[in-house]
Design goal:
Main location: membrane
Strand content: under 5%
Enzyme class: hydrolase
Subcellular location: Membrane
Oligomer: single chain
Order of helices and strands: EHHEHHHHHHHHH
Largest sheet: 2 strands, antiparallel
CATH architecture of the largest domain: Up-down Bundle
CATH topology of the largest domain: Rhomboid-like fold
Protein name: rhomboid protease
CATH superfamily of the largest domain: Rhomboid-like
CATH class of the largest domain: Mainly Alpha
EC number: 3.4.21.105
Helix content: 55-70%
Strand order of the largest sheet: 1-2
Distance between the termini: 43 Å
Structural class: mainly alpha
Shape: elongated
Number of helices: 11
Length: about 250
């Protein structure tokens, strides 16, 4: 309006905006209001942009918001997410994921309030379930649950990777469904679910699937040039890629 923005710049001061919200009781989520105020306090003029308000209400994360996050200019008038009470089991899990994966409070709060259950983190769960099913099938068929690679029938599987089978390109990836024994399967499955699922919830199925498969492919390519006689089974390459990605969060 002319009274709030006489020069029609699209900006108003954060103090003016805050008083307007309280006097007119605008139906704005308090968490979003905190984010908007923090964003305004992060720029040099301390002003609220109309487009930023529209983006925030529509749950669109603007480039200016991302820049404010990147510059570390975050002011949080309210308490952190850890002080939220009355949360259900799933929302508590989402809060855990936010604190496990995201390095700063503003990003955590944004993720917590904007998180949607669709699409669910199905990639890591599907990969882990497939690995378990394949292991059980081969264990029952061979009657051998440990050191299965020592069984001659096991090495005839079309899934196992061996440098001598490089012409069969699918083996560069399918070996991730095979495991030597319960110890290897259990270790990989545990890490995939503990690290992979939270990463997938935050970063999405496309990024995490690419990251995991890239690790698997790197493992088979490395074996191809370092040991021409060794067969390769297990999803450890993908698990190492997930751990390396999570290391960035730990460092930050």
């Amino acid at each position: 309006s002319p009274q709030l923005d006489p020069e029609n710049t699209g900006f108003i001061g954060v103090e003016t905006f805050a008083s307007l919200v309280h006097s007119h009781e605008l139906p704005l989520d308090p968490a979003k209001l905190d984010m908007l105020v923090a964003l305004a306090q992060g720029n040099d003029e301390g002003q609220v942009c109309y487009q930023e308000l529209v983006d925030l209400i529509s749950s669109k994360r603007s480039s200016s918001f991302k820049r404010a996050i990147a510059n570390g200019q975050r002011a949080l008038p309210r308490d952190g997410l850890l002080d939220e009470t009355g949360l259900g089991f799933y929302k508590r899990f989402v809060r855990y994921v936010a604190y496990e994966i995201l390095p700063c409070e503003m990003d955590r709060r944004w993720y917590f309030y904007q998180h949607r259950t669709c699409p669910p983190p199905v990639f890591m769960a599907a990969v882990t379930l497939t690995q378990i099913i394949v292991f059980l099938c081969y264990g029952a068929r061979l009657n051998k649950w440990v050191l299965q690679t020592y069984h001659p029938e096991y090495m005839k599987s079309p899934l196992v990777y061996h440098p001598g089978h490089r012409a069969r390109a699918w083996r560069f990836l399918t070996y991730m469904f095979m495991h030597v024994g319960l110890e290897q399967l259990g270790f990989n499955a545990l890490l995939q679910l503990m690290i992979g699922v939270p990463l997938e919830m935050v970063h999405g199925i496309l990024r995490i699937s690419f990251l995991y498969l890239a690790g698997v492919l790197a493992g088979s390519l490395t074996v191809s040039i370092t040991d021409m006689r060794a067969p390769l089974v297990g999803g450890s390459g993908g698990v190492y890629a997930l751990c390396s990605a999570h290391l960035a969060n730990v460092v930050m």
